[in-house]
Amino acid sequence: MRDRLAIITASVAGVFMTVQYFLTAPAANTAYRTILSWMQVVFAFALVVGVIGVLRLNIERLGKRRSGWFYSAALVAGVAAMTILGFVGGTDRGTPFQWVFDHWQAPMQSTVFSLLAFYVASAAYRGFRARSGESTVLVIAALIVLLGRVPVGEWLSPVLPRTADWILNVPALAAKRAILIGVGLGMIATSLKVIAGLERTYLGGR
Amino acid sequence: MGTPRRWIFALVGLAAVAALVLKPGLPASVTQDTRSVYDLIESLDSGAVVMISFDHEASSLPEVGPLGAAIVDHCFRRGIGIIGLALFSEGTAAGYELLGRRASVFGRSYGSGWIYLGFRPQYTSAILGMGENIGDVFNLDYEGHAVTATALGSRVHSYNDIALVVSVADGSMPTYWVEYAQARYQVKIVAALTSVMVTSYLPYYESKQLAGIVAGLRGAAEYEQLLGHPAAGCRGMDAQSAIHALIAILIIAGNVQGWRIRRSRGHGEA
Amino acid sequence: MTFIETTTTALLTLAIYSFLAGDNPFYKFAEHLLVGLTIGYTLVVTLKSVIWPQAILPVTQGQFQAIGPLLLGGLILLRPFRRWAGWSRISLALVVGGGAGVAIPAMLKARVLDQMAATVTGATTWGGWIILIGVLATLTYFVFTRAHRGAWGTSARLGRYFMMVFFGATFAYTVMSRVALLIGRLEFLMGDWLGLLRT
Predict the structure, then answer these.
(1) Which of A151, A155, B75, C17 is most deeply buried (CB count within 10 A of its CB)?
(2) Which among C91, C97, C173 has CB closest to A14?
């Protein structure tokens, strides 16, 4: 019964939100704005549920002293610290909450992603091989854009940046545009299936 | 025997450190794409309002931070009001800090020179909702004031009152700005991106659905040159050149190595 | 920032970089701390910036039409409890269905029709014609319900070449992105922390 109610909700909301694109009546506009604001609140609660899920897992591991419990303690301590700092000290500029974000959270996040610079260099030597016509085209395009988009490429030859521009604005653009159109058509089909009640994965595997 | 991975890691680190210390200072020309964004903001009236959405994670800050700062500086320098917001949770604190820091440099006060709306997680309803009424989506700003009680917030009700939206992003968010804000409400959108996203957005720029694209540390360096104020973007270009050159050499060396192995196998079989 | 402040940031940065030498307790500690800080941050920002002003405050101010979204949001909180998790699907259905509804006209216009129009109207220069051919060729590659043989197969193969150019360019830009992050971190370590860089 609840699943049927959910499917009907999705269908009614979906049909209305599609049709309202073409409607100009004030009542339709009011309903549209109401649904938009309801979607926002519901999604925010869903974020909170996700947070609670991760916390539960790690608190359980910590409580039962399972393998890796020390790291779970670090995780839980991080959650507690930010939550207390945020609600007690506020989130304005100059607060401890903002400080931890600026000096611990953001730098650590970017450091994790900067590790990829090393691995991409390693992959470039070990795996980026021109073994066929297609891979040769890939390697040549990569080399031209790699050098053409930085000052050293301009210094080596003015042809490099001009060729890189052409590669980006013509053949690469064409391929990406086709992918965009294809993905767009696919997403429209999926949206229609959700509205028709044929696509139900959002119900959690039912 | 392949070259040990850690030698390559060491080479990358060495190339970056050497370039940062030695600073060869190779010049970087300003591309037409960056110049177009600069000219677009330059053409706005000084009383105009620009909306800047910080749609990125904290991890991208070294790349989009300098770019966002350059665009914010340009707006503040021209007396353009800025309404900041975030559609990614980590962009919230990053954008708030950036705007506050740059506002104090230019003497722009909160409420009249800039306001920060805060975070909305459901981007579809946020982007569409602001097209109807910004107050529906944000009744209070990030600091807890009623949005309509601020000088800037009281004169901006929807995209009709916004000259330009700049999405500072490291992912798909500019796509949604185009699909929902530009397509329905015809507001101009500029994407200030991480480099990795450039190839994904060139089709939108070529079709004029995006009014401008500027990307990465290179984009920041170019913008800083146009502003006449070199900063983090310009500083990073030498190291960017050095590591790109190293990786290009590694690709060529790897292919030469691979070709030699295939040739020796071919001779061995013969 | 004081030296102590920059040192704490530097130590956490170096703990993450220690992963280059292999997985180790310093990296794991820093990684888990980072996840914890991120979760706590998201919780604070969501509650303070979204749920309080949009869901709870309006109800306390007598705007009873706000009870609807508050109740639907509350249903979502039942999700971790197996017995009542079914009720949360109704709230999720509103978001998913509403999102699907607005997506149809938006994507049809922005991703399909406007892109097709730009492709066709742009075919007035050599570059424009190459783009038109490339788009058609790449689209034929993605039709898997028809065998890639004959003229169709040739077109699909051409599409693959266009995609290889795209992937090569994307790889180069991916390198650019990651390198920019590395430069930012190294500038902090060498400049802000150790003071080795001239400004």
Answers:
(1) B75
(2) C97
Residue C42 contacts residue A51 (beta carbons within 8 Å): yes
Distance CA(C133)–CA(C162), nearest Å, equals: 10
Contact B199 A155 (CB under 8 A): no
Residues of C in contact with B92 (CB under 8 A): 45, 49
pTM score: 0.93
Contacts (Cβ under 8 Å, ≥6 apart) of B142: A91, B92, B96, B116, B117, B118, B119, C49
Q: Do A110 and C41 touch (CB under 8 A)?
A: no
Residue with tokens 């014609």: C129
Do the domain assignments include residue A186? no
Chain C residues close to A171, C-beta within 8 Å: 130, 134, 162, 165-166
In a domain, B254, yes or no: no
Residue B7 lies in a domain: no
For residue A84, what pLDDT band results from cuts at 50, 70 and 90? very high
pLDDT at site A2: 79
pLDDT at site A206:
46
Q: How far apart are CA A203 and CA C196, in angstroms?
A: 56
Q: Domain count of chain A?
A: 1
Who among C90, C162, C176 is closest to A175 (CB)? Answer: C162
Question: For residues B73 and A94, what is the distance between their CA atoms, to the nearest angstrom?
Answer: 21
Residue ranges making up the domain that contains A13: 1-89
DSSP notation for C135-150:
HHHHHHHT-TTS---H
* Chain A hits for B90, Cβ within 8 Å: 105-106, 109
pLDDT 10s digits, B204-230: 999 999 999 999 999 999 999 999 999
Q: Which of B62, C65, C50 is nearest to A41 (CA)?
A: C50
Name every residue whose Cβ is closer than 8 Å to that of residue B234 and which is 6 or more positions away in sequence: B28, B221, B224, B225
Residue A59 tokens, joined: 């608190």
In the predicted model, what is the mean pLDDT of chain A?
Answer: 91
Q: Which of B58, B125, B237 sits opposite A110 (nearest CB)?
A: B58
The per-residue pLDDT for range C179-199, each reduced to its tens digit, is 999 999 999 999 999 998 876
Evaluate the CA torsion angle C39, C45, C47, C51 in order and state its sign: negative
What mean pLDDT do residues B34-39 have? Answer: 97
Residue among C116, C115, C76 at smallest CA distance from C94? C76
The structural domain count of chain B equals: 1
Domain contains A42: yes
Chain A neighbors (3+ CB pairs < 8 Å): B, C
How many residues are recorded in chain B? 270
Dig out the tokens for C24 from the structure.
């180790």
Which residues of chain C are under the pLDDT cut of 70?
1, 199
Structure tokens given for C156: 């699909």
In which residue are the tokens 């971790």 written? C80
Q: How far is CA C111 from CA A187, B201, C68, in A?
A: 10, 11, 34
ipTM of this complex prediction, to 2 decimal places: 0.90
- Whether B258 maps to a domain, the answer reads no
The Cα–Cα gap between C45 and A161 comes to 43
pLDDT digit string, tens, across residues A16-71: 999 999 988 889 999 999 999 999 999 999 989 888 888 888 888 888 887 888 89
Per residue in A114-130, pLDDT (tens digit) is 999 999 999 999 888 88
